[in-house]
Amino acid sequence: MHDPAIARLRDQDPAVADLVEAEARRQYEKVRLIASENYVSPAVLEATGSVLTNKYSEGYTGRRYYEGQQYIDPIELLAVERAKRVFGVEHANVQPYSGSPANLAVYMAFLEPGDTVMGMSLPMGGHLTHGWSVSATGKWFRPVRYGVRADTGRIDLDEVRDLARRERPKLIWCGGTAIPRTIDFAAFAEIAREVGAVLAADIAHIAGLIAGGAHPSPVGHADVISTTTHKTLRGPRGAMIMTTEEHAKAVDKAVFPGLQGGPHNHTTAAIAVALEEAARPDFADYAHQVVANARALAAALAERGFDLVSGGTDNHLILIDLTGRGVPGKPAAQALDRAGIELNYNTVPFDPRKPFDPSGLRLGTAAITTRGLTEGEMPRIAAWIDEVVQAAAKQDDTALDRVAGEVRELMAAYPMPGWAPAP
């Protein structure tokens, strides 16, 4: 049973409705540990599926290229003002379609093609758009990359400083896609100032934790901040760029007309709703519970002998190195999915295996925390993961269906926003 309902979709296109129903049930029945996924509220779902998708609104509030913006402009203004209030920034652009275009807009605002950009190496936990070779950002700009220490799995900021001094980048990225530890924004800012670089903080994974006070903020340290609006922030699939008034014009011009046409107004409205939710006291409780759950799950996994990159986590994300477990990340992730535990295979620092068949697993606790799970359930989830990984190493599937049934039984006790089984 969907909330909001999809009765008209079922009447009009039962094939699509059946697939939506199946996906909703899958999300309900599984322990969803993909670090970049979450559940949004029914209010966010309603905004995303509203008539706002009918309207084209190229330009910015008060300066559109189409008429009929009497209600669109106030919606975008709400989203902007709420972003400014939640994150404590001077300027926010809520129009980027997703995280990668938002990051590309940062390049367009501050760099010229061929300029040097410094970012965390993708295999070490960075993001494609931080200058990796297969990305446009690695092809159109000159990338230099930092990583983590082999002995600690953590960023060595002295090495970052030495690299910055030697290469003199015009833009430095901090943040990434598989970083389980707190990002020291102040230290990155000091390095950026020393070499005259713009500091960009990519907080896509931790935006909700920052909004809820469970992770330090880059505001006051980074010149520009990019983020998606889903993941820990529990909004729709969109993005934002936040900055100071000094850089506002350059950022806005880079988004439109530099990279995009009209914004997706239904997404803008859903971002506004999610930001209003993030301003509530219970969202702070949620953000801190995400971190508490991640630490409890990491501890339970470590007790079972799993090798955790950096030894644990400070946020929502855990990175497991399976090198010593006799099974690569991909078959382990596939076995876990069959057993009702959804996560993704992932490279780990200094991984000898290829990216499409790496040594690691990446998991996070944002979605299960939204469902209401707390620290008490984490040892049980760790036990399931351990059992399934051992089964995958032995190529023994006999336990997977049993674990999947146990997972379904557990998750049935925790309501899912937006869907429930028919009574």
UniProtKB/TrEMBL annotation:
Q: Which residues bind (6S)-5,6,7,8-tetrahydrofolate?
A: 122, 126-128, 245
The cross-references to Pfam families, in alphabetical order and at most eight, read: SHMT (PF00464)
Compartments reported by the entry: Cytoplasm
Q: Where is the Serine hydroxymethyltransferase-like domain?
A: 9-385
Could you say which enzyme class this protein belongs to?
A: transferase
> What is the top-level taxon of the source organism?
Bacteria
Q: Which PROSITE patterns match?
A: SHMT (PS00096)
Q: Which family does it belong to?
A: Belongs to the SHMT family.
Stated name of the protein: Serine hydroxymethyltransferase
Gene name for this UniProt entry = glyA
